[in-house]
Amino acid sequence: MCRSFLIAGGGVFGASTAVHLKKRFPDASVRILERSPSTANTTVSPSPDAASSDLNKIIRADYADEAFRRLAVDAIAHWRTDERLRPFYHEVGLLLHSLPYSSSRRDELDAARKVAERGVAEAQAAADVEGSSNGSDLPAVAFLCNTDQHLQQAIPAPALASAGTALRAIAQDGSEDAEGAAYLNPRAGWAEAKEATSAMLAYAIELGVHVIYGAEVVELLTTTGEGDGQRLACGLKTADGTKQVLDEADEGAIFLCTGSWTPHLLQTLTRNEPALPPITAPPVVFSAQTVLLVEVSEDVALRHANIPVVLNYDTGFYCFEPRRVEGTDGVDRWLVKCAIHDRGYQAPTPPAPAGSKSLPCYPGFDAARPDESRERSVLASSSARKHVPAEHETRMLQALKAVWPEMVEHGTVHESRICWYAETTDENWLIDRHPSLPNLIVASGDSGHGFKFLPTIGELIIARLPAHVQAEPARPIPPLNEHWTRVFSWAHHEERFEAVRQKAQAAGSGTSVANNIEWKPDRDSASKVLKGEGPGLVGAEHDVSRGL
């Protein structure tokens, strides 16, 4: 059997898929089509504006959803032990906390404490899944933080000495104006996102995968199968007119691992195939999340070394320890990433990126235009894709100051960035065969929590290969269980998406599906949803669910 595979996209989903394909089919031809250009004297890496091309990503397993909890525990085991990925994983812990609440808001404080208690239970459940397989090498299990002693366990002394009001409120006993709730999960941390994804891509190349750069996919090529005469995907056409085709369509498959490009591509790749039914309700949508990089001095950075990742489960704000990064100018800088994880920004008509020969998928939003009346980093772009709304930058700096004041008082904004997500209505991923093309596999809908599964998600994706293509691999492909088969399915997401669309229309929210409705369910302890008001609202609504 002459198997060949094409993968559109070299990010987390695409790189992991390529590696797992070559592990199962060492003799197969596997090609990744990556739209970012290849430049001389640089290492292989994902597209600069991909979500995976980032400074840090959170790694954790304390999901309320038991199925995802088990999946995350397995992924973290790989982060700890895989020689290629282990150098990029920093298990410094994850501190989740609430806002400080005054005595007049006792009900909200009690609710926040219950969130923390459930979080500890979920983290301990993840620890139970881990068992004792790694023995004493594993960090301690999660615990509530509500005393000074707990904070001393959670935060290194140099950083704790200058901790902000948001953290100090955790250990208060009610004698102060406000107090909060929190818990620490020591079996969590962060990964160097771009470097880890690049390492996975490099591993794929080592296994024999061919990465084609500058390949912006604009059209899907199809043919008629030899057996039952069904239409099959047989290749991909790029913006420069090049066609990359499968050796034999009947014995191969094409994977669409295109992140936030996916909603657009699903509707346009088959535009020259009138025989195929149009996709009127793509089961994923894109959203723009805001990220800020703050540059701090080496002294400040060293005082905050090895601090846990901090996540406010009331607001969605989170931040990492300072990381030393070599700039394009050859100068080392200490950068702190902070962000607000929420529903993101959406717009019905995206702007076209410079030089693109096809319609883009990127959302544009007027509020993202830079405020020319104030100074900003010379490195910050004025494009909507690189500059966050001014009010969001202010919110992030205020939130960072409440956690680590020194980083703001003695730091400067280095860069603002938009992180592009592909979202589903319930944060289960879309991993399934196209309903009209059985050898086109769509893997998308990361919903902000796909990165941590970089070591393992490819195995889930290739499990969707048609049965005859899976036949006789070097190692059997584990099938998806009943739960994953259902919640990853096209039908599941299309049904949910259509229900959300109808609910939005009934609520009078026009074209913005995510407004005035509960777009995602509250399925995680660290999850609160604050609804926006009024039709046509543009902007972010907080949803700190299992994303991250």
Automatic annotation (TrEMBL):
<dbReference type="GO" id="GO:0008115">
    <property type="term" value="F:sarcosine oxidase activity"/>
</dbReference>
<dbReference type="GO" id="GO:0050660">
    <property type="term" value="F:flavin adenine dinucleotide binding"/>
</dbReference>
<dbReference type="InterPro" id="IPR006076">
    <property type="entry name" value="FAD-dep_OxRdtase"/>
</dbReference>
<dbReference type="InterPro" id="IPR045170">
    <property type="entry name" value="MTOX"/>
</dbReference>
<keyword id="KW-0285">Flavoprotein</keyword>
<protein>
    <recommendedName>
        <fullName>FAD dependent oxidoreductase domain-containing protein</fullName>
    </recommendedName>
</protein>
<feature type="region of interest" description="Disordered">
    <location>
        <begin position="505"/>
        <end position="548"/>
    </location>
</feature>
<feature type="domain" description="FAD dependent oxidoreductase">
    <location>
        <begin position="6"/>
        <end position="463"/>
    </location>
</feature>
<dbReference type="GO" id="GO:0050031">
    <property type="term" value="F:L-pipecolate oxidase activity"/>
</dbReference>
<keyword id="KW-0274">FAD</keyword>
<dbReference type="GO" id="GO:0004657">
    <property type="term" value="F:proline dehydrogenase activity"/>
</dbReference>
<keyword id="KW-0560">Oxidoreductase</keyword>
<dbReference type="InterPro" id="IPR036188">
    <property type="entry name" value="FAD/NAD-bd_sf"/>
</dbReference>
<comment type="similarity">
    <text>Belongs to the MSOX/MTOX family.</text>
</comment>
<dbReference type="Pfam" id="PF01266">
    <property type="entry name" value="DAO"/>
</dbReference>
